[in-house]
Amino acid sequence: MSSTPMKSSRQYEAECRYLYSFFSGNGGSDGQKLVEIFSRRSQELKAICQTYSVLYGHDLLRVITSNQKSSAFTKLAYLRMSDPQSRDAEILRKSLGAGSISLGTLIEITCTRSSSELHDIKQQYHSRYQSDLERDISMKVSGGFKEILAAICKSCRNHTHKADTSLAFCDAKTLYESVESGRTIDQKTIVSLLSQRNTSQVKAILLSYKQLYGHEFSKLIKQSKCGQFGRDLRIVIRCIQNPEKFFAKQLRMRNADAREILVRIIVTRSEKDIKDINRAFSAKTGSSLEYLVRREFNGVKEKANETVAAILLELIRG
């Protein structure tokens, strides 16, 4: 990723003029220039969007979505230029669309973002769609995931609370009893706990649980008496505990959405934990994200695909 120091808005005018020329179709076909622009850090991209609006009186995001160029490049450019919380709200909205629910994407956004980030995402979701995220999840998601994911969304109201070790040990004992004290798992107690503890606290609870009982909580809920709820809860818990492994698993799936997932994960996790994800991916596959990008985009000899691959590789390298 470009490490160029932050510049003043006026100094971003050259980038804006290039983007105007590129998206208007009046020139600007230098792939390397696009790589330089879209691999900049988030704060610089925000400044470019603001400068573009001042220079041309248009929202750069609208310009990007209205162009007829490569679909992969358009999606990447849009994700890169979007405000992170607004972007995630839009991803959630699409995953809850009228068609089939994208459960993997729902888990990805709600369980890998910090409580503070999720709080802001919920606000953006409500502002943009005049709808409540928790309610939409409760209405459109079924099974254990409905209660679990809605509880995670509710918990971000406590996003300002710091992790409390003493409380974590008490909650760890509560989790143990909710599974072992009866013939079936106490779903109500677990959901209630998840709805009251922010992500940092949940991680502290899981760490305390292992210290107390010598094994992961996710292992305890593999018991047959935990049923489908236990299987759903295990996916969410492991995602919160080890997000890099969740992302690596998403990237290993070969389906119709593989390319979109690859672009989304690299873009949204750049400047965060993309290097951890790369290591987790390599540990499972023996190959790197760089190799995956080249295989996905460089097989088709189109300049736009080569540009997309180059931008993604820069974001992985950081």
TrEMBL record:
Pfam families in UniProt: Annexin (PF00191)
Keywords: Annexin, Calcium, Calcium/phospholipid-binding, Metal-binding, Repeat
Coiled coil: none
GO MF annotation list: calcium ion binding; calcium-dependent phospholipid binding; phosphatidylserine binding
GO biological process, one term: response to cold
Source domain of life: Eukaryota
InterPro entries xrefs: Annexin (IPR001464), Annexin_repeat (IPR018502), Annexin_sf (IPR037104), AnnexinD_plant (IPR009118)
Gene Ontology CC terms: cytoplasm; plasma membrane
Amino-acid positions noted as binding Ca(2+) in the UniProt annotation, renumbered to this chain: F23, G25, G27, R254, E296
Protein name: Annexin Gh1-like
Native organism: Rhodamnia argentea
